[in-house]
Amino acid sequence: MSDLVGTGVRVSVPASTANLGSGFDALGLALGLRDEVDFTITASGLSITVEGAFTDVPTDEGHLVVQAFRKACELHRISVPGLALTCRNSIPHSRGLGSSAAAVAAGVAAASALAGREPDASALQLAAEFEGHADNVAACLFGGVAIAWSDAGGYRAVRVDPHPDLSPVVLIPSQESSTKTTRGLLPARVPHSDAAHAAGRSALAVHGLTRDPAVLLDALRDRLHEPYREPAWPATSRLVAELREAGVPAAVSGAGPTVFALPEGGVLPAEIDITGFQALAVPVDVDGVRVAPLG
Ligand SMILES: Nc1ncnc2c1ncn2[C@@H]1O[C@H](COP(=O)(O)OP(=O)(O)O)[C@@H](O)[C@H]1O
Ligand SMILES: N[C@@H](CCOP(=O)(O)O)C(=O)O
Prior knowledge:
single chain; 295 residues; alpha+beta; Ribosomal Protein S5, domain 2; Alpha-Beta Plaits; 2 domains; seven-stranded mixed beta sheet; four-stranded antiparallel beta sheet; 9 helices; 11 strands; globular; binds adenosine-5'-diphosphate; Homoserine kinase; GHMP_knse_ATP-bd_CS; threonine biosynthesis; GHMP_kinase_N_dom
């Protein structure tokens, strides 16, 4: 019998907004909207309880948190005879707010904790390999602004402190959009001038997110993914354009269809028409994943 039976951890994971416009597949920002998952190691079987606003997920081995947890347990050589999971979901699914990255990060962080480890570079590697988007995963694990990349050694990221004046508003439509589907809209090649545009703007975005938010209106403009994905969410593209026109730094959040905006003081100009979107002011999250023993 595993000596873990009867023990457990509570994991709290933040939402994240990836890309920040010009930083396609590279930049992420953690947001203070959290899912919470309780993992209890039992003698046998699998039970999953899902509470909260977003409950339409499998309740068997197909559950994303379970899949990531099992994979990470294998890596840490942890034997888990049975598992009881209670999920309290607040991050909207398939809206571009990193719900899948949060689910995977929760599973990986729980296994790390049972192995007596803090979530570290190997947790990033495992979670990003599993989920596919290191920009979301790094922001979710480590909080703040993530700069992510990959090389022959795997997925890497650095965390930088966000500027304290960032006051994000996310505008969430009821429409869902699958990240996998909209990645299929991206071309294999882009013009050299668009690549150069992205290099400059994404470097500027890091400066804006950390040192000088005044440059963000320019910095968040993108040519690498937003124009190609527009057919999947035309209303999102219109709202991003309207916000930029009004001087508000804005971008498509992740693979959409949520709109990410940084209005001054966290208040959108009254003239912006947000019909069809739910506006939610969410603070920047600086903590990343939190893990505590279940008591
Ligand atoms: N908390 C969760 N528990 C289980 N599965 C989840 C959870 N969050 C997300 N998922 C899975 O991930 C899918 C959404 O992933 P994706 O299309 O990448 O969108 P998002 O931008 O929300 O990450 C959901 O349909 C669901 O299958
Ligand atoms: N860089 C990825 C980010 C996907 O984020 P999500 O929150 O929509 O899953 C992409 O743009 O595909």
